[in-house]
Amino acid sequence: MTPGLKAMTDPLNRAKVALHLHLQCGHFSHGRQIGRMEDALKDRLARLRAELGGSGQTGFLPTRLASVRLFWSDHRLPRMPLAYDPGIAVIVSGRKIGFLNGSRFVYDAGSYLAVGLPVCFDCETHATPDRPLIGLFLNADQAMLQELSAGLAETRDARPAGQTTLGVEPLKLTMPMREAVTRLADQLSDDAEAQLLSPATLREIFFHALQDRHGQALLAQTRPDRPEARIAALLRRIESTGDRPPSVEEMAQAVGMSPASFHRHFRAAFGASPLQYLKLRRLIRARTLLADHGSSVAEAAHATGYASAAQFSRDFRTYFGEPPSAVHQNAA
């Protein structure tokens, strides 16, 4: 008997081979299940896009729930600054590449981007008509995150918030999250389900995100003693009032830091100085007004706090590589 045949007839070796084949078949079956779920979710979101009147449109599309937006692109978009509020960006198809504070990160089909801070970063979109970018952005409710985090802290599954130098993290969708996102997509097609059932499904999705042992961005922001969490709360107050942006000294005093400490923590978390960040947020908002709301250049400048349209145009060209008039004309 040859050594190979003898090995196959040995009971222990036969058991090892059988276990290996069983694991391989299980992995293949699991992969097929995930593939079917992704295809079904992609079809569901395509129908939702049509139901919401967004066929042929690219960019963000509001859904029946204010805290959830559908995003879609049929073509590649070059690297440009984008603003993200805290939440989760679930990618169903296509790929995005982000650049923040010297780091490059990819989030694509089967993954999500956990956004714990109101960040601005450069982003490339890779999409084609055959493989479009499709996804959902779920805005995080700070009170809900605090409540979930407090509840998790009382369970044996609680874990401490580790150090994270970025306000964003790309993570793989777990099976419970996939199932919840699929249910959410179904609920968004019906007015009653969207209003009555979707909030609980959103809560479930964020629950799973906070439990992800690899994720830190969302969890860290539920700790009010963290410097980046205090800065994020300050930025929310600044944006909600719409008042004149405060000075660095005023912002540092508001969060109980020295100007030097505030500047250091701000740059570590947001990848820019405080004044650079505030200017970029204003310009990204202006671009949205020009591209999606039909605002004129003068209206966009005034709405974002610019007293001089000429200064607005110079800053806009510096960040986006084109004048605001070009964005307005393309939108028209």
Distance between the termini: 81 Å
Give me the CATH fold name of the largest domain: Jelly Rolls
Count of folded domains: 2
Global mean pLDDT: 85
Largest sheet: 6 strands, antiparallel
Written account of the structure:
Helix 3 packs across helix 6 (198-211) and helix 11 (274-292) runs antiparallel to helix 12 (297-303). The protein is built from 14 helices and 10 strands. It is an alpha+beta fold. Mean pLDDT is 85; it is low at 158-163. It folds into 2 domains: 59-220, Jelly Rolls (Sandwich); 227-331, Homeodomain-like (Arc Repressor Mutant, subunit A), CATH 1.10.10. The protein has helices spanning 3-9, 11-51, 142-153, 175-187, 191-196, 198-211, 217-220, 227-241, 248-254, 259-270, 274-292, 297-303, 309-320, 324-331, and strands spanning 59-62, 68-73, 77-84, 87-93, 95-100, 103-108, 111-115, 119-126, 133-139, 168-172. It is globular, with a radius of gyration of 23 Å.
